[in-house]
Amino acid sequence: MGLVPLDRRQITEAALALLDEVGLADLSTRRLAARLGVSSPTLYWHVKDKAQLLDMLAEAICEDAFEIDETQDWRGQLAQGLHQFRTLLLEHRDAATLLRDRLPGPNRLAHIETTCGILLDAGFTPEDTAGIARLLTAHVLASVETPARPDPEFQHRLDGFPAVKALGPAFARTTADDLFALGTEVILDGLAVRLK
């Protein structure tokens, strides 16, 4: 039987499909080789180990560049970038966990470059810009993890915690999208005050 021709794009697309199917914990080069219909040694000609595979996936997830409307003020530009980054993460299972664990490659560095440029142009100091960029990334990564919905049994634990008990319905209604929107607004409000 002849060798099955493989290219990086084919491997990456199969790996992303596998990630969506089995999740990060069960992703392996062995499973990827099976999905591609090749032996593990054949795959190793293209991907030397799981670490390289994870780096390829992280880069693929961040492949699309941010499209920022530069006619907006810095606040609008940041909000647009945050929404686009979140959209990229929501397209693939465990994407936030993956990006948290990998060093940025060129695609993700381009996103960071865009964010830092917006902040510096707005007048933030280099020290603030470095911290704010990390804060914004952490906000988006956290926002793609759906918050746990309170279990009906949970109400029984709230005796003696009147504020939490009164807020039970509000907690139950709050979605990950709501938390992202609220967090983005609060962070941007705070940055506007800091910039003054």
From TrEMBL:
Single GO MF annotation: DNA-binding transcription factor activity
Family matches, as Gene3D superfamilies: Homeodomain-like (1.10.10.60), Tetracycline Repressor, domain 2 (1.10.357.10)
Pfam family, one: TetR_N
Keyword annotations of the record: DNA-binding, Repressor, Transcription, Transcription regulation
Annotated HTH tetR-type domain residues: 5-65
InterPro entries (alphabetical): DNA-bd_HTH_TetR-type_CS (IPR023772), Homeodomain-like_sf (IPR009057), HTH-type_TetR-like_transc_reg (IPR050109), HTH_TetR (IPR001647), Repressor_TetR_C (IPR004111), Tet_transcr_reg_TetR (IPR003012), Tet_transcr_reg_TetR-rel_C_sf (IPR036271)
Iron among keywords: no
Membrane-spanning segments: none
Highest taxon in the source lineage: Bacteria
GO biological process, one term: negative regulation of DNA-templated transcription
Protein name in the entry: TetR family transcriptional regulator
Species per Swiss-Prot/TrEMBL record: Amycolatopsis eburnea
DNA-binding region: 28-47
